[in-house]
Amino acid sequence: MFRIGLVGAGHISRTHVQAFARLDGAQVVGVCARRPESAERFGREFGMEIVTVDLDALIEGVDVVCVNTPNALHAAQAIRAAEAGRHVIVEKPLASTAAEGRAVVEACRRAGVGLAYAEELPYVPRFVRAKEMLDAGAIGDVRYVTQREAHAGPYSPWFFSRDEAGGGVLMDMACHSVEGVRWLLGKPRCTRVWADLRAGRSDSALEDHAVLHLEFEGGTTALCEASWALHGGMQSTLEAWGSAGTLAADLLHETGLRLYVPDAQPSVRAPAGWSRHNADWLFDNGYPQEMEDFLAAFREGRPPLESGEDGVAVLEILEAAYASARLGRAVAPDEPLPPVERAVDRWLDPSAGGTT
What we know:
By secondary structure, the chain is α/β, with parallel strands linked by helices. The protein has helices spanning 11-20, 36-46, 55-60, 74-83, 98-111, 125-135, 162-165, 169-184, 281-284, 287-300, 308-327, 345-348; strands at residues 2-7, 26-32, 50-52, 64-67, 87-91, 115-118, 142-150, 190-198, 209-216, 221-227, 235-242, 246-250, 258-261, 273-276.
């Protein structure tokens, strides 16, 4: 039985509590939050044994630490947990920069503990089935992939802060899109990134719409679109074009379950009008499957499907995208670039993007 502690008391921690509750051999026993009232509210709701604002107190009482805090805190908190001998799960993105991400990977390697990168798209059943079809050669050689993650913007103010988030929609949504494409294609090396970023919000200088064109070893290309500019719901889709066919998958809009009500129904999370619903939202979005793989990997001493190295690869691509948008040219993820404090600095700071 793994005793699990959550760092952070926001939306994703609530999702993880519900996912872990479906698994044998897992018990969420504690929560640590920056504000005592947040920790206490979360602890009461889910019956936590440990409710604290002291990270070390949480670490002491658990076997696995799940880091669900603002991005800028991920690396330091994950490293503290690893140095205390705890397995670590880190929400996306792994850190604020690729350099920080590599430090997390090294700390876990040095301590001999497991590290899992909480990217759920590779566990989504309909995307898993799509990959099985591609791997079986259903559409021939895959030539081009598109993936989109979009909605109207995050739920918490910290997402719009350079200091706390490390970037805008690239760090929040494009991390899903990039890793979804990498995984779908078998995680080939990304060789070049072109990016166009736009900042259209009055409350933040960070990018709220991003288009990335990725080229992979072997010649396959991908278009990743991430946006906070979509009103009227959320989209999570992928499409693959091959030499012998086409494949498309829609996570959110083709659920097969629709409801019409003239007035909003909060008890079933239904707005007024037509709405689409999942029969099992947690399972359909891959969260229990993700956590089951992570805990099995820790028990078996193997890397999970989504590892710390995958989190680093995503950050390297995102940093290349920021640099590309600043420089107006393609950038290789392994291209030497000046060090930065936050990934978005490669776009916001003219001196941090690299050379033209």
